[in-house]
Specification:
Radius of gyration: 20 Å
Largest sheet: none
Number of strands: 0
Strand content: under 5%
Number of domains: 1
């Protein structure tokens, strides 16, 4: 079992393994939103598959269905936002269809 001293808080800078180039700044809220959307997406499919038909009426299921309807758009938003964050570094390369100038 690893010692507690080995666990460090998430740093805004990505720590690259030896021999590899370090990445840019990592935004934890984007990862958190994508992870939360994934968990709620699993909940959506499991509940919709196994919930008895008698419980699919009423205000609880209405609000649950409303929340479940927000899952896919929030995941797409977070994925698109992370694409824009990455794209800002390589925008000119993308515009001219050339490989990125990565180290």
């Amino acid at each position: 079992m690893p010692a507690i001293d080995q666990f460090k808080p998430i740093s805004p800078e990505i720590q690259a393994p030896p021999g590899k180039a370090a990445g840019g700044v990592r935004y934890g809220f984007v990862d958190l939103l994508r992870g939360l959307a994934l968990v709620v997406m699993v909940e959506t499919h499991v509940v919709n598959a196994y919930l008895p038909a008698g419980l699919r009426q009423g205000p609880f299921f209405y609000w649950l269905a409303f929340l479940n309807g927000l899952v896919a758009p929030s995941f797409l938003f977070a994925s698109g936002y992370s694409l824009v964050l990455q794209g800002s570094r390589y925008w000119n390369d993308w515009l001219h269809f050339r490989p990125g100038s990565r180290s």
